[in-house]
Amino acid sequence: AGDQPQSNNLEALFHMRYATFRFKKFDLDATAYAYPSLTDRGRIRMGMQSALYIELYRNFKWKFSVYENFDSRPPVHAPKNDFGTGTSIAWTGQDRV
């Protein structure tokens, strides 16, 4: 419950996405991005997210995802990297053509 340091930062954005739906039961989606700072020389934030969707039965899918985020100069003694995974089950509501 102390004062949080405040700062302004101007950043550029580079973003790349890849998605494929080539397989009958599997879908793959991957995203990578970078935010180089324009006002704080040498600072860059980057990240990647990818997900694998597996069709279990008709429109029911299982999703497994992985992400990683990196900040070369994180605020307030935070770690530079953040990594995690997730999983979910979903129903799409419509058949694929």
SSE series: EEEEE
Rg over C-alpha atoms, rounded to the nearest angstrom: 18 Å
Residues in helix, %: under 10%
Number of strands: 5
Q: What's the pLDDT, averaged over the residues?
A: 85
Q: Which stretches are low in confidence, meaning pLDDT under 50 for 5 or more residues running? A: none
Give the biggest sheet: 5 strands, antiparallel
Shape: elongated
Secondary-structure-derived class: mainly beta
Strand coverage percent: over 45%
Task: Give the terminus-to-terminus CA distance.
Answer: 54 Å
Instruction: Tell me the strand order in the biggest sheet.
Output: 1-2-3-4-5
Number of helices: 0
Could you give a short description of this structure?
By secondary structure, the protein is mostly beta strands. It has strands at 14-20, 26-36, 44-57, 60-71, 81-91.
Task: Provide structural commentary.
The chain has strands at 14-20, 26-36, 44-57, 60-71, 81-91. It is mainly β. It is elongated. It is 0% helix and 57% strand. A 5-stranded antiparallel beta sheet has the order 1-2-3-4-5, with no helix packed on it.
Salient structural properties:
97 residues, five-stranded antiparallel beta sheet, mainly beta
